[in-house]
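Subject: Sanity check before I submit

Could someone independently write out the structure tokens for this chain? I want to compare against mine line by line before I put it in a report. The sequence has 165 residues.
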Amino acid sequence: MGGLACGLALLLAACSANSGPSTNGPFGNGGPTSGTVCYPAKPGGVVFDGFEEFSDTGGTATVSKVTLVHPRHLLLVAAWVANANNVAAGGGGGYPTPGRSWQRVPGAVVRHTHGREMIILVIVVKPSGKIGTATAVNLYYESAGTHYLLHFPYGPQAPVGHACH
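---
Independent answer below. Compare away.
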């Protein structure tokens, strides 16, 4: 009986290890690049980053959430997705000015439109220490009943009161 219980436990553990969202969805993956994107913040201020661009290879998807990976003294304040054709990518201090095509996350619905295959993610973060950091950014979405994860392997960095190094 003990061997059967151990076998079932191993089978359950193996099945559970693969139960997370797929990283091979219509938005592709975040690519092999890693590193940071740095914008200095004023004390008590926020910074935004709009350089996370990804392709939409088809269908309709609903973005359920965006998270910072391993944040340290950094809070995600807001996130939007928008057609990259209608957005000037960039970043800096303060809040961005959302355009008409911007959709707030969670609940943003992205539809594949011929000629508008690139989507951009814009995030606003607020540092709470001398410097706020995260190692990466994750975007979770659902398309055709399947849940996916788009992992951007570089994270924001926001030093407070001094320039980026």
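---
OP: Matches mine. For the report I'm noting this point. Residues 61 and 143 are 4 Å apart (CA to CA).
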